[in-house]
Amino acid sequence: MNQKKMLFTFLLSLGLIFASAQVSHAQVKSTSKFYRIEQPLSLKLLVTLGGLGLIGAEGWWFLFSKTKSQRTITSQGIQELEILVDGGYKPDRIVVNSGQPVRLNFLRKDPSSCLEKVLLPDFHKALDLQLNKTTSVEFTPTQAGEYTFHCGMNMFRGVVKVQEPN
Ligand SMILES: [Cu+2]
Question: Is residue 120 within 8 Å of residue 160, measured between CB atoms?
Answer without folding.
Answer: yes
